[in-house]
């Protein structure tokens, strides 16, 4: 393919701004697109997305590239946010950013760019790389593309791209994938985008904004009080306003010889079980189930239905060695065994898998050994030790 016209997702931030600049410097015909995914005006009529669009327009004007706005508010609400709220009510810990990339940016945006605006490829400001190169200079029409970790491992965002489909990834450029954040900001300053380079970096969920998460979530989920119960003694230690205000591993304000931390939540009764001590063994897990996986390329499990790789469930945490096993015949469940226990692995989060710098894909955790259905740990251990038939692997992962 010849890639000439490129649609860059321009968010108003420094990473997408520098991406647009680098594309133009390489001689591409650049079309900037601002995606409006959320609309939340406060009592004074201010909407943060309006400010972001103004910043995107400032970048486009400075770079002398056209800017178009596309509205995905309805799709984001129906396909992502309503499910996010439902899962919080069910006691899960969802990650909407992974779904936003899969459903909005690398599906709807990709289709809009290639079909409506007739672009040859898309580009985003994510810190990631692919085997086709930062600018698709190594594109091959006869092979799948690999999703690779960025040069800046601290800023690497492949975690959030772990469910991007091949059709979009094959025609996606990551212009800042080979740069670190400091270099990106220097470029922005050099080209006269000081206000963009000095912007406070956005973190957290886009729809929360500057509000605290508890105050935000209270707008959509009614409080349903329940008890805090000591997992070891069964004593009621206090009351809470609702399980949606709490996540696994979170410290409570309960009084005791040690601080108490959330161990698991029971949506049926509204009970939150707590454990004393931040290093309490019940807060750690090294074996758990996940749902059907999404593989960026082909299924990486070998002919024994095994995969030795690395795992993380939070994008800022170090990766841990693991062994992945297909837990049932149709491959709709995986069993994960970690080389070392990790704290507060929560149902609803994504298990993301890596090997040799490649992001292989991800799968949602539905039993972590520390959350709902935590009593299935014995079942996990039984399957691993006796049904898998690979005892030689157990020593390698310190089972």
From TrEMBL:
It is found in: Mitochondrion. The keyword Nucleotide-binding applies. Residues 286-365 form the tRNA-specific 2-thiouridylase MnmA-like C-terminal domain. Residues 215-275 form the tRNA-specific 2-thiouridylase MnmA-like central domain. One of its GO terms (molecular function) is tRNA-5-taurinomethyluridine 2-sulfurtransferase. One of its GO terms (cellular component) is mitochondrion. GO terms for biological process: methylation; tRNA wobble position uridine thiolation. It holds the Pfam family tRNA_Me_trans_C. It catalyses: 5-taurinomethyluridine(34) in tRNA + S-sulfanyl-L-cysteinyl-[protein] + AH2 + ATP = 5-taurinomethyl-2-thiouridine(34) in tRNA + L-cysteinyl-[protein] + A + AMP + diphosphate + H(+). Its EC number is 2.8.1.14. Keywords: ATP-binding, Disulfide bond, Methyltransferase, Nucleotide-binding, RNA-binding, Transferase, tRNA processing, tRNA-binding. HAMAP family: tRNA_thiouridyl_MnmA. Catalyzes the 2-thiolation of uridine at the wobble position (U34) of mitochondrial tRNA(Lys), tRNA(Glu) and tRNA(Gln). Required for the formation of 5-taurinomethyl-2-thiouridine (tm5s2U) of mitochondrial tRNA(Lys), tRNA(Glu), and tRNA(Gln) at the wobble position. ATP is required to activate the C2 atom of the wobble base. Belongs to the MnmA/TRMU family. This is tRNA-5-taurinomethyluridine 2-sulfurtransferase.
């Amino acid at each position: 393919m010849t890639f000439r016209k490129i649609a860059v997702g321009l968010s108003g931030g420094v990473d997408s701004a520098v991406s647009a600049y680098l594309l133009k410097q390489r001689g591409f015909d650049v079309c900037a697109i601002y995606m409006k995914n959320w609309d939340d005006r406060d009592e004074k009529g201010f909407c943060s997305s309006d400010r972001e669009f103004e910043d995107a327009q400032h970048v486009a004007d400075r770079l002398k590239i056209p800017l178009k706005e596309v509205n995905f508010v309805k799709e984001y609400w129906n396909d992502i946010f309503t499910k996010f709220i439902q899962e919080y009510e069910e006691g899960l810990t969802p990650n909407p950013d992974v779904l936003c990339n899969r459903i909005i940016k690398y599906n709807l945006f990709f289709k809009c760019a290639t079909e409506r605006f007739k672009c040859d490829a898309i580009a985003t400001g994510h810190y990631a790389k692919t085997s086709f190169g930062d600018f698709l200079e190594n594109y091959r029409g006869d092979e799948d593309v690999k999703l690779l970790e960025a040069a800046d491992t601290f800023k690497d965002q492949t975690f959030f791209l772990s469910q991007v489909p091949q059709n979009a990834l094959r025609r996606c450029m990551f212009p800042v994938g080979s740069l670190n954040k400091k270099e990106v900001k220097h470029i922005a300053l050099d080209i006269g985008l000081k206000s963009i380079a000095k912007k406070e970096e956005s973190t957290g969920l886009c729809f929360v904004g500057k509000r605290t998460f508890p105050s935000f979530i209270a707008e959509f989920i009614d409080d349903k009080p329940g008890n805090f119960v000591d997992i070891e003694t069964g004593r009621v230690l206090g009351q809470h306003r609702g399980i949606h205000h709490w996540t696994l591993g979170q410290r409570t304000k309960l009084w005791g010889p040690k601080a108490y931390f959330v161990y698991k939540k029971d949506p049926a009764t509204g009970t939150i079980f707590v454990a004393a001590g931040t290093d309490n063994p019940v807060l750690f897990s090294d074996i758990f189930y996940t749902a059907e996986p999404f593989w960026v390329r082909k299924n990486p499990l070998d002919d024994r239905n095994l995969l030795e790789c690395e795992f993380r469930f939070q994008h800022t945490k170090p990766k841990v060695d693991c062994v992945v096993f297909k837990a049932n015949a149709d491959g709709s469940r995986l069993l994960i065994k970690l080389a070392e226990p990790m704290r507060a692995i929560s149902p609803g989060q994504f298990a993301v898998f890596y090997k040799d710098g490649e992001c292989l894909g991800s799968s949602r955790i539905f039993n972590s050994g520390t959350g709902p259905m935590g009593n299935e740990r014995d079942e996990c251990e039984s399957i691993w030790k006796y049904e898998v038939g690979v005892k030689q692997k157990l020593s390698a992962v310190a089972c």
